Amino acid sequence: MFGGLLTGECAILGIVQIKKNEALPVGLFLQARDALENGEVPVGCLLVYKNEIVGKGRNEVNETKNATRHAEMVSLDQLLDWCRRGDLDVRSVCERTVLYVTVEPCIMCAAALRLLNIPLVVYGCRNERFGGCGSVLDVSSADLPRTGTAFKCVPGHRAEEAVEMLKTFYKQENPNGDHLISYLIYFRVFLILFFLSLFFKLCLAMLSFFSFSP
């Protein structure tokens, strides 16, 4: 569907696809609503290949006590299973698949999408705390060698609805709040250590360069 298309054309097709197929936005927010009703951060996700939903999911972090079970990761697992059952090449399918999600993918999910070569992400509201598509880090389009391919993002699809669902969740008590707080702390520490390591590597490289300069 998207093979050989420029990123701009790919984005246009993604928007046309969700506007023509009314089931896509309905199914997307049904996933988010299901997450909210089950005590999860209300994020829903769909993966669409040749106008067929091949993966869908919602946040399952509290339910599984696993901080990596974001809606995107759950959906990607379904896509991989779908490819295995149909004996299809994962890379070929991913390169022609569009991901729709109610909230901007976090840094972790954006990295996974790069590695799987998903070309286009259409999302609702921004993720100001952990967004990997420009809000915090621009994993989606950054020049990152040997980390898959950059992907196009189209923000703002029913963003207000996505924000209202998030507000509803954060107004209520989170039964696994301590678990999530621990995850957030560890995640921030990881980011700090990661960037410190890059800084020290840069300093060492500069020292090495100047020490060998004539």
Q: Helicity level, as a percent range?
A: 40-55%
**Count of helix runs:** 8
CATH top level of the largest domain is: Alpha Beta
Q: What's the CATH H-level homologous superfamily of the largest domain? A: Cytidine Deaminase, domain 2
The CATH level-2 architecture of the largest domain is identified as 3-Layer(aba) Sandwich
Largest sheet: 5 strands, mixed
Strand line-up of the largest beta sheet: 2-1-3-4-5
- First-residue to last-residue Cα separation: 55 Å
| pLDDT < 50 stretches | 1-16
CATH topology of the largest domain: Cytidine Deaminase, domain 2
> Strand tally, please?
5
Q: What is the CA-based Rg, rounded?
A: 19 Å
The overall number of domains is 2
Structural class: alpha/beta
Cofactor: Zn(2+)
Pfam family, one: dCMP_cyt_deam_1
EC number: 3.5.4.33
Function: Probably participates in deamination of adenosine-34 to inosine in many tRNAs.
